[in-house]
Amino acid sequence: MTTGRSALRRLMRERRREVPPAARIGAAGGLAAQLLAHPLPPGAHVAGYWAADGEIPLHVWQLRLPGDVTYCLPVLHEDGRLRFAPWKAGEAVEANRYGIPEPVVAADALLQPERLDLVVVPLVGFDHRCHRLGMGGGWYDRSFAFRHHAPAPPVLVGAAFAFQQVVGELPSEDWDVQLDAVCTDLSTVSRAT
Ligand SMILES: Nc1nc2c(c(=O)[nH]1)N(C=O)[C@@H](CNc1ccc(C(=O)N[C@@H](CCC(=O)O)C(=O)O)cc1)CN2
Ligand SMILES: Nc1ncnc2c1ncn2[C@@H]1O[C@H](COP(=O)(O)OP(=O)(O)OP(=O)(O)O)[C@@H](O)[C@H]1O
């Protein structure tokens, strides 16, 4: 069902980009409230993303995180798996090959995906089973493939506008990593256990 996936991806990306600025800012606040309901261990390492292509923004959540939490952003790595770099507002970033800013840090400051407690995962579409349709690079699926056989942490929580939930079920592939939950501006959908 590769065609189904690419047509849906195009449609959802268009809808995401069409959200007016005021609605986008309001949605970021609603999303933050949903995300903050997830308990974090003391000194947690969490990953967000730098919103691009109309994605729901994470800045409100980032600003409201407890002071002992380390916020990280994804960094593309040549082995096809993401690394995560601690990042605070104002620190240096550089556009990656997709034009998405990523922190400029020394290699030894990068964290492996396994090191994180909570990962907020960008997505294009999701369904009631917490299956995810991403941008099509397979980055999150490769990086968190270990979650097929291992329990959380990291807890994987998708972030989306409520309208990104599809009716019915997404066509899925063997490699798709199911999310533990998806938070939207309006509510949280949890994976059936
Ligand atoms: N904000 C954000 N950061 C992220 C992701 C994401 O979805 N959102 N990723 C989630 O995996 C990774 C990057 N994956 C991406 C995969 C494809 C495209 C993309 O725009 N593709 C273009 C054409 C490809 C190209 O230019 O080579 C397109 O589809 O139009 C962007 C990011 C890591 N960082
Ligand atoms: N665990 C894996 N091992 C090897 N290749 C993988 C794995 N997971 C995904 N891929 C590859 O990644 C490609 C893209 O996958 P898919 O279309 O599901 O990406 P996506 O989840 O939408 O993207 P992203 O995570 O970048 O947002 C697939 O064609 C597949 O070949």
TrEMBL record:
This is 5-formyltetrahydrofolate cyclo-ligase. Belongs to the 5-formyltetrahydrofolate cyclo-ligase family. Its cofactor is Mg(2+). Pfam families: 5-FTHF_cyc-lig. The lineage of its organism: Bacteria, Pseudomonadati, Pseudomonadota, Gammaproteobacteria, Lysobacterales. Its EC number is 6.3.3.2. Keywords: ATP-binding, Ligase, Magnesium, Metal-binding, Nucleotide-binding. It comes from Luteimonas padinae. It catalyses: (6S)-5-formyl-5,6,7,8-tetrahydrofolate + ATP = (6R)-5,10-methenyltetrahydrofolate + ADP + phosphate. PANTHER family: 5-FORMYLTETRAHYDROFOLATE CYCLO-LIGASE, ATPASE INHIBITOR/5-FORMYLTETRAHYDROFOLATE CYCLO-LIGASE. GO terms for molecular function: 5-formyltetrahydrofolate cyclo-ligase activity. NCBIfam families: MTHFS_bact (TIGR02727).
